[in-house]
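Think of the structure tokens as a kind of shorthand, similar to the way a musician reads notation: each symbol stands for something richer, in this case the local conformation of the backbone. In the example below we present two proteins back to back. Begin with the first one, reading the sequence and then the tokens, and try to describe in your own words what changes along the chain.
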Amino acid sequence: MAIVSKKFMLFAIAGGAGFVVDTAILYALKGVLGPYGARAISFVCAVATTWAINRSFAFKGQSANLPVWREFLHYFAAMILGGAVNYGVYAVLVALIPLVASQPVLGVAAGVAAGMFVNYLLADKLVFKAGPNTSV
């Protein structure tokens, strides 16, 4: 019996890719939009990235039975709760800890960790509902 499921590991890998996208876009835009506005945009881009990866790997075979664009909207809506946790942790750390303010990647990492479990459960149970023949 595996302690961590293959599906969760694939979800975590997708999250790692989302983290890279999130951080890259944050750093590209923070000079123009500041650390908060840039993070809002980078988060949306990270969600799009993780959705594309998760639907192809972690939740492959778990059809949402929706057109692709609606599936994305459902995924995005589900990620808002985990995203709120993620962004809240990030914002608090940037505001209170000078090291995080100067190195926002630390806040992104803390936020990602805080929101990951919420996002996994929402994706697995609400967006990509397991069908009777799903096994991962």
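Once you have a description of the first chain, move to the second and do the same.
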Amino acid sequence: MSMNITPSSERTHIGIFGRRNAGKSSIINALTNQKLAIVSDIKGTTTDPVTKVMELLPLGPVVMIDTPGLDDEGELGLLRVQKAFQILNKTDIALLVIDSTLGISNEDIDILTRIRQKQIPFLIILNKADKSDCHEAIIENLSLEFQTHKNLIIPASAKTGMNIYELKEKIASIAPKEDANHQIAGDLISPGDFVVLVVPIDKAAPKGRLILPQQQTIRDILDTGAVSIVTRETELKKTLAGLGTKPSLVITDSQVFEQAAKIIPVEIPLTSFSILFARYKGSLKTVVNGAEVIDALENGDTVLISEGCTHHRQCEDIGTIKLPNWLRKYTGKELNFEFTSGTEFPLNLTKYKLIIHCGGCTLNEREMKYRLKCAEDAGIPITNYGTAIAYMKGILERSISVFNIHTELS
């Protein structure tokens, strides 16, 4: 993704749900005025969730997610339906598309119930309203049975464009409001401050660019009116000496936490990108408490290491190589490790003694919090890369001292 495009994780995720041939893909095309999704009269054209990154006015940057039909059949169809349900975990706004010529089905009721349980803002679209005289009756029944306000049920037609403009306006009106105080690091610094970012350049670093959390942190610092200075760990000492003033904050990549801590004077606040993102997208208290479980690991325990993105594994990959080695060395135990990446996250977590997750820079906030809640519900401690590394290196207390402990860890 281009550095000048809003990252997917920062976009509003709009999930489109409904039965096969309800017109989900047609609604996406009508909303965007583009042929983004394949449309066919053949049932089951959309066999896997398909994401489209785009601008949807008047809302702005969004991710549209077209899902398989909820009434898909057979063993493979069941797996597709499960995929559709999993999309709810990252959905900020849900659109339930109902074929108004057929009316509401058990599958529609099931997904609507789950949407409401997860407290996801939603709209019900009665598609093909140009062919039906029944949509008024459907609206009445839905509003009574589900105590759903009639303003959330919109008769529309992807074919004729009926109420498509009104639908876009309604989507924008129910979108979660952005919290101006929700920042990565901006609330920790002041305009004019100097912030040093320690960024190692190794085999895993993308050629010609910075990784996403580094990009986002720099932008957050710029928005605050502060000055970011980016350096490698090998030039960190020289950079500090050349500044002529103490930086207000140093943010380091977790992999060089130990080296940075030895160079940065103790009076200068130090933290990591991963710890900042734990606070930004989830719960700092949860991952700090989870890191303390490392001391309780025993021989034969299984640790799940989970990443939100998928990438080509390098020989010194942090998730599959470095973290397991650091854990074995720190605990002195024979541990078992399992790994997941991308959209994969186990439904049953009971086999794990500890979960260590990445910073989640490619996941939106809703999905990251869903994963934290899954661990909480299963009673399994969860931490993240940076927090676990800081704990094993003996610098966790220092790395979280920059935060207001009573606020952040309450």
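Compare your description with these statements about the second chain. The longest helix spans residues 74-87.
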